[in-house]
């Protein structure tokens, strides 16, 4: 992937981290920085230390190639810039470099198609185009028979934290569903919902939205977070928090456009044939917030 600005680096770091099934906290601990630094890097922090950026890429098994693309810039329609292009590649086993970013999952494929049609950064400087990745529990000990046992509570707490740091902001019922399904349950029981609430209330911020609770990875509840692409099979549109829908609305907004038009474009971007009822209201609310954010800048 070619890089011309720090937002591109942040997008690569986030995508690669999710491909590896790591939370921001896990990556931060391996790099030797705080989780907030990883969060800011993924959002395109302008003052990020080059030493730490390279160390982060190395931790993610990524390498940087620098090439002169002067010839490409001379072609008609080429973008004019002042620096050579960087290309980030993933190291294969044995130390050889292979091209990074080849999508392997349905969600990644959908993201690749969307990103090929729209820039990864909109006019309001809010990055979009990330891929939504469902939490990977491979490294965690699972025991369905002990699911509700007191001695299993520390495992559940780690799993809940892992989901929130990997997928947050996330609706509380979706969080409980993740825990249920990895234990072989078709749905989250009332007891499991109670347990996840007890765990999250002590550690994470919570915000009510349309009769459901959204759990945030940090203490701060933000107006907007980067939108993450996914197929409807991976994440239904009703499971996308408004703060993330607003980022999508910002990426689709254009001068003179109405909230109704933006809501329709959002539906198409999410793979919906038509939108109506509560879905239209949610999309219009996100579009209205996007318009307000644009007017404040």
How would you describe this structure to a colleague?
This protein folds into three domains: 2-102, lambda repressor-like DNA-binding domains (434 Repressor (Amino-terminal Domain)), CATH 1.10.260.40; 144-216; 221-296, no CATH class. Helix 10 packs across helix 11 (259-269). Helices cover 46% and strands 12% of the residues. Strand 3 (85-91) and strand 4 (97-99) form a beta hairpin. With 297 residues, the chain is α+β, with helices and mostly antiparallel strands.
Task: Please describe the topology of this protein.
Elements: E1 2-3, H1 6-19, H2 24-31, H3 35-42, H4 50-59, E2 62-67, H5 70-73, E3 85-91, E4 97-99, H6 106-117, E5 128-131, H7 153-167, E6 170-171, H8 172-182, H9 190-203, E7 205-209, E8 212-216, E9 227-229, H10 242-252, H11 259-269, H12 277-296
Parallel strand pairs: 5-9
Antiparallel strand pairs: 1-3, 2-3, 3-4, 6-8, 7-8
Helix pairs in contact: 2-3, 2-4, 7-8, 7-9, 8-9, 10-11, 10-12, 11-12
Question: Can you tag this structure with a few keywords?
Answer:
297 residues, 3-stranded antiparallel sheet, 3 domains, 434 Repressor (Amino-terminal Domain), 9 strands, 12% strand, alpha+beta, 4-stranded antiparallel sheet, single chain, globular
